[in-house]
Amino acid sequence: MLPALVLNAVEALGAENPVVILPNRTQMLALRVASKDGGFLVLAGSLSANGPSLHPGDLVAWHAGQPIEHETAELAKDPRSQWVGIVVAKLKPEYAFNKGWAIAEPFRP
Question: Which of 29, 89, 100, 109 is deepest in the core (most CB within 10 A)?
Answer without folding.
Answer: 29
